[in-house]
Specification:
heterodimer; A: 255 residues; alpha/beta; six-stranded mixed beta sheet; B: mainly alpha; MetI-like fold; ArtM/GltK/GlnP/TcyL/YhdX-like (chain B); amino-acid transport (chain B); transmembrane helix (chain B); Amino acid ABC transporter membrane protein 2, PAAT family (chain B); transmembrane transporter activity (chain B)
Chain lengths: 255, 225
Amino acid sequence: MTTATDSAPVLTVEGIRKSFGNKEILGGVDLSIRRGEIKVLIGPSGAGKSTLLQSINFLVMPDAGRICLEGRPVDPSDRKGLCLYRQQVGMIFQEFNLFDHLTALGNVEIGLVRVKKMKRSQARERAMAELERVGLGVHAHKYPAELSGGQKQRVSIARALALDPKVMLLDEPTSALDPELIGEVHAVIRDLGAAGMTMIMATHQIGFARALADEIIFMENGVVIEQGPPDKILDDADCERTREFCTKITELGGR
Amino acid sequence: MTGELGFIVNDLMPALMRGLWMSIRLIVPSAVLGFFLGVLAGSCRVYGVRALRWPADLYVALFRGFPLLVQLYIWYFGLPRIGIYLSPYVASVVGFSLCSGAYHSEYIRGALLSIKKGQLQAAQAVGMTRLQTILYVILPQAVRRALPGCGNEIIYLIKYSSLAYMVTCIELTGEGKIIASATFKYTEVFAVVGVIYLALVSVASWALGKIEDRLTIPGFEYHRA
């Protein structure tokens, strides 16, 4: 089941806390992931899954805690270092967040040209290869407004992949999609997993989580309640609250 | 040719054409400079650090607050007091650009605020710096959204360029005023002057529409009624 090796973790998250006003969203979360591992975050809305993923990429600045990439702590006050770190951590948003004024190709290319300072022709070639990898070569010259939700999310995955990330963070990648478009995005994510991509994903798609995850992490009220292999967490959790949540969501989503 | 028509063709038109050329020389650089000033000031006001934000806010407050004519008097008649001499032409272009920029910045600011937060987050997530995010993600979208408003400001500019003759830069209105004063044919002269401004505005609207069309991409269409 697990592909865990003896290698040191790619990414570690230690004691991340975040409050908005008086409301504590994350109450000290620890997490670590090794190369090629896939961890899936589940839990009710408001559990802090999104905030956790955004904190890992410093899109939300954590109030406390430490994040290390390959053993090196990230200092978010060092702007240059932060930009470099973010290039290595791919982020997939629930709402896709494609750049609306750029074609699919432009979306994938821009990071290569502007951030990695790659030559335009080289960048175009790489971007095209990434679009083909997610099955969108023929739509390369369409604008986001001309693409379906599933296609947009696949472009956003290509955009992240083009930067050769060491870890991908996926924040409910299929929650904003029509049910019949979910499959195409799941297929792409499954391929990524098979290719050895390290991923942390928040999702409510429990069947998908079971098939993909090496470990499932159940969060509620900003803390990790329980974590373990999918079969253990989904079918035979130790914690009462975990069992309750998993039973409900399994009834809905099926095994 | 004699009579009214002769007056218009032989005396009026040559002067007005000279004036029109001067008006165009005032309007085009002021429109371009004003637009870029507006983008700069608008960006500083929305995304700038405090040290950039308050000067930009002050700039807009002053240049939208002072009547344009007063601004022109300051540039042309006031600055020599501190040893700065601007030609009537330069004083006018400076005055128009700065005033126009203040108004453009409001259109740009509104457009910047309409850009969804997700666009910013996505740019940060691919590792762009703040400046890169503004230049390559936010502004290309915001400028498209601001275009109708900015076009409106340029149409205004065409007409307030007539104030240049108050600081002795003799453009279309100025040439008309000179002839009208000499002949007392105010009605004829200013009817023709008005028609020329109308033609200028029509050409500008058409050109601005063309620019909008050129920049239109799916998702940023303007649905003209």
